[in-house]
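#onboarding

Welcome to the new folks! Below is a worked example of what a typical request in this channel looks like: someone posts a single protein sequence, and someone else replies with the predicted structure as tokens. Don't worry about understanding the tokens yet, we'll cover that in week two.

Example request:
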Amino acid sequence: MSIFKKNKTLIILICLAIIAPIIYFSTKKGEIKTEVKEKPKDNFWISGRIDGAGGIRLYVEAPSDQGMIPVADTIINPDGSFKLNGNVPGLGFFLIRLGENPQNAIQATIEPNNLIQIRTNVNEFKYKPNMSGPSWTNILNKHQAILRDFEFEQQKLIANEQKLSKEQVNEAFKVIKKKVEDFAKTSMINDPENAYNIVLSMALLPTSSFSDWDADNLKALEMAAQGFEKKYNGQPAAKTFRSQVDQIAAAYRQYSSTTDGSITAPEIELKNPEGKVLRLSDQRGKVVLIDFWASWCVPCRKENPNVVKLYKKYEKQGFTVFSVSLDEDITAWKSAIKKDGLIWPNHVSDLKGWETSLITTYGFDAIPYTVLVDKNGKVIGTNLRGAELERKLEELF
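Example response:
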């Protein structure tokens, strides 16, 4: 069994997991039907005025794994005024949508006994709803303004994408995304019991892995979980929020164990193109990049020049590369080594392609895949490539 258990599949969207327990509908063959015979009494009320929205329908709906579940709706009066009532069984995540465009919706955390007011116009509904009533609406208003700025900056970045390198685009995106994350983190820490933390938590989740994830996000998520357990003790939302935070914490601990130098890289003992056996353990005393690649792998070949550049830059400081090929054709393997100028001496393969046992040992399912090993043979990084690998080596050397 691999010691490098993949953490990508453990990244879970908290929002949907929290919604699921509080929906009072059941589904059969893709159809949504209610399990209650009588309509429950209204326990939340939304009213106000949306100028210019006369005749447009306003919806409250709940996302679920079966699609959107309607909760309440109304037609806005000609003068923009409206009243909308409905029932929710407990704290949950809902969308308040104006019209038929699914993107024109506000994320809200409605609770029983909420009296909510909206005072805006049809053009500013999404980003400037001027919502009031429950305590969570104050954070919602600020958050919508932050999201407006984020989307504006994101559109500018997309417009200039052709003029920038992939690394520049990624770095620019991180900068604008950080503003959203910082707002969410600060708000959750300052008010961990706020219902709107369900929405804010989405900004703090790792998207695909923990490689660029801020560990301080976990502190905010943990504080919110404790706040929910205190304020909403016994409610499904609080229990599910806690469960999801615990899963993320466990996944992060798993990831950290593969980057903090606590795990020794499993031995690799294979033949080079000339038939000589090379061992990973023979590289002790050097920082080693284990590079899983193949001659037929286009992304691998595109990354090779970067690896060559870094090898030349840091070789004299104790850095080397241990290339493990998933080739089956020795001629193609040797040709790629020569053509790409892979000048380090450590090239090995069992020529079994995807049947190699190292896939299980090192726990990867795609190449290029890398494992960075320190001078003592301990793993200090996984799947580092491009600018990320360069930054890591700069830190080490």
